[in-house]
Design goal:
Layout (H helix, E strand, L loop, with lengths): L7 E8 L8 E7 L5 E5 L4 E2 L9 E4 L2 H5 L4 E5 L5 H4 L2 H4 L7 E3 L1 H13 L8 E3 L6 E3 L2 E7 L8 E7 L2 E5 L17 H9 L5 E6 L12 H14 L4 E4 L5 H13 L3 E5 L1 H12 L10 E2 L11 E5 L9 H6 L13 E4 L8 H13 L3 E3 L14 H11 L3 E5 L3 H13 L4 E2 L7 E5 L3 E3 L7 E5 L2 E3 L1 H4 L1 H10 L1 E8 L5 E10 L11 H15 L8 H20 L4 E8 L1
Parallel strand pairs: 3-6, 6-7, 7-8, 12-13, 13-20, 14-17, 14-18, 15-16, 15-17, 18-19, 20-21, 26-28
Antiparallel strand pairs: 1-2, 1-22, 2-3, 4-5, 5-24, 9-10, 10-11, 11-12, 22-23, 24-25, 26-27
Helix pairs in contact: 4-8, 5-11, 6-7, 15-16
Length: about 550
């Protein structure tokens, strides 16, 4: 048989391998020139200070677009933004089905409605333990514990070999609001030696020893903190963490308190959970309009804003700007969450505002009020022992997490460990081979309502403006080089010190006037020459004065 006609199973990470978030991967089966593809997850990451004005960053689907005729489906492991947040922006163009559990499908529908997205995708139901076939792939969803309901690992079987793609998971023996990770199923997969097995696995906590605390331990802490407080208790957490919402509600009920809910995302997600029967035994939540009717000792406030979002409920409460809700000295606020990298300053600022008002602020520094949804090193080892994989591909993490995971796998005796990054092609079967940089990858920015490449976004210019401000000079000259009007100035983002001997506008005007005098009149009728000379002069003068190089734009109008 010719080499290029051999059926191969390959894995191509398009996002989430070398970074946190923006998870998206493709599995291809068949000979190199005739592969069929399935896609697993389609997530976003949040823009940081280096992308001013950008809301979200999405994986560039260019590789999938090049192979669009052979892309069969998208499969979602769960409904966290970093795994499903880009679906409605990217997937309608492919016009292919999306497989998702009932909760993830409901979250996708609610997201579409809340954001007013017109584009639609065909969603097909995926049920745990019920395999389905798509082209040459047979896929089975396996329940795993995580911090959102109905999270799944995937068993992907092909004639060439099998893969367990874990998604996000942990080995929590006592999760809240969800079933524990299906260890028996993983053990059965590992016991089946009829074909080789690859493990494509979450690396988020691969640098941390031990095991992740269980969700029921957090529930016990919250119960005690709520019961002992003599006044109001407010809890802010990730809106998607239905298990945490259940823990807070149970603790409130046990303490004889009512739960008031504030925040659209919490209302939306808890509504989905109740419709799907996940909140059985939990009393209906009260709306924020009923907050003032309750005595201080009778209320637990569940609110959004755990990541320091300026318009979220806890931020508005901290600034005393919320129309319905106020907290007083002696009340307690529990941050049942961790700050996503990049959000730390905003979260701390909110906590400081509350503390300055005499409010008791409880964070992870004070007790077990939050736990991760990802496996630590002992949990990874336990999964290795269950699955006995022939191949390990660490994913979901930055370089430090991926390399720690790779080393752990080798130390535990896994035969082949692949150090993959976004854009690599990993041939898993029949022989494992790693092709670095084989595939075009990149990022797309969601900038307001515009989806664009980084080069198209203008972000580089915004960074320059944020550092150097902007000076605009406009003047009119006639054909003889005589200045008829101007110079008019606009100065934005530069210091304006009142007690300086010379103001910045005066300095700029002097630079313009001096430069114009130095240009012979006959040459002043060349707008391009004048523009270049003025730009250099103004930038030089201001740099000497300020110590930074400003952005300078010169308009020379010839009349």
């Amino acid at each position: 048989m010719a080499k290029n006609s051999v059926d191969e199973l390959v894995f191509v990470p398009l996002g989430g391998v070398g970074e946190i978030g923006m998870n998206m991967g493709a599995y291809g089966f068949g000979p190199p020139r005739n592969r069929k593809w399935i896609v697993v997850d389609c997530g976003v990451t949040f823009a940081g200070p280096q992308e001013p004005g950008v809301e979200l960053i999405l994986p560039d689907p260019a590789f999938l677009e090049e192979n669009a005729d052979d892309v069969l489906v998208l499969i979602l492991t769960h409904s966290h933004e970093d795994h499903y947040g880009a679906v409605l922006d990217l997937w309608p163009a492919f016009d292919r089905p999306v497989y998702a559990t009932a909760f993830t499908a409901a979250m996708l529908s609610a997201k579409q409605e809340s954001e007013g997205i017109v584009e639609d995708v065909e969603v097909r139901p995926m049920q745990v333990g019920k395999p389905f076939t798509v082209g040459p792939f047979t896929i089975e969803a396996i329940n795993v514990a995580h911090s959102i309901p109905e999270s799944c690992a995937l068993l992907i079987a092909t004639p060439a070999g099998r893969v367990v793609h874990t998604g996000d998971w942990k080995l929590d023996p006592h999760p809240v609001g969800n079933a524990p990770t299906d260890l028996a199923r993983f053990g059965a997969i590992g016991a089946d030696r009829s074909s080789r097995l690859a493990l494509v696995c979450d690396s988020t906590n691969a640098t941390k020893d031990g095991t992740s605390p269980s969700e029921d331990q957090v529930a016990s802490t919250l119960e005690a903190l709520i019961a002992e407080s003599p006044h109001r208790v407010a809890v802010t957490t990730f809106a998607s963490n239905v298990g945490r919402v259940i823990s807070v509600a149970r603790a409130a009920q046990k303490a004889g308190r009512k739960v008031v809910m504030s925040g659209r995302a919490l209302h939306r997600i808890s509504g989905i959970a109740r419709e799907l029967g996940m909140l059985e035994g939990i009393e209906p939540f009260l709306d924020q309009t009923e907050y003032k009717t309750l005595a201080r000792k009778d209320v637990v406030l569940l609110c959004t804003g755990s990541q320091g979002e300026a318009r979220a409920a806890i931020a508005r409460i901290a600034r005393e700007e919320h129309p319905e809700i106020a907290l007083n000295a002696g009340d307690r606020v529990i941050f049942s969450s961790w700050a996503i990298p990049g959000n730390e300053r905003e979260v701390i600022d909110i906590q400081n505002l509350l503390i300055d008002r005499g409010i008791d602020v409880i964070t992870r520094d004070h007790g077990l009020v939050h736990t991760t949804g990802h496996p630590r090193r002992e949990e990874l080892k336990q999964l290795y022992d269950l699955l006995k994989p022939d191949i390990l591909v660490p994913v979901h993490g930055e370089a430090v997490h991926l390399e720690a995971h790779a080393l752990l796998g080798r130390q535990h005796g896994i035969e082949t460990v692949v150090h993959a990054r976004n854009g690599d092609m990993v041939r898993l079967f029949p022989e494992t081979t790693h092709f670095p940089g084989e595939v075009r990858v990149g990022e797309l920015y969601l900038d307001g309502n515009v989806l664009c490449t980084p080069e198209e976004s203008g972000v580089k210019g915004r960074r320059r403006l944020s550092f150097g401000g902007h000076i605009v000079v406009s003047l009119c000259v006639n054909s003889s080089g005589q200045v008829l009007a101007g110079p008019d100035l606009v100065i934005e983002g530069l210091p304006d010190v009142e007690d300086d001997d010379e103001s910045l506008p005066h300095l700029v005007r002097r630079a313009v006037t001096g430069t114009l005098k130095s240009i012979p009149p006959k040459r002043r009728n060349d707008p391009e020459l004048v523009q270049t000379a003025l730009q250099r002069a103004v930038r030089s003068e201001v740099t000497s004065y300020w110590g930074r190089k400003p952005n300078v734009t010169i308009f020379v109008h010839r009349i």
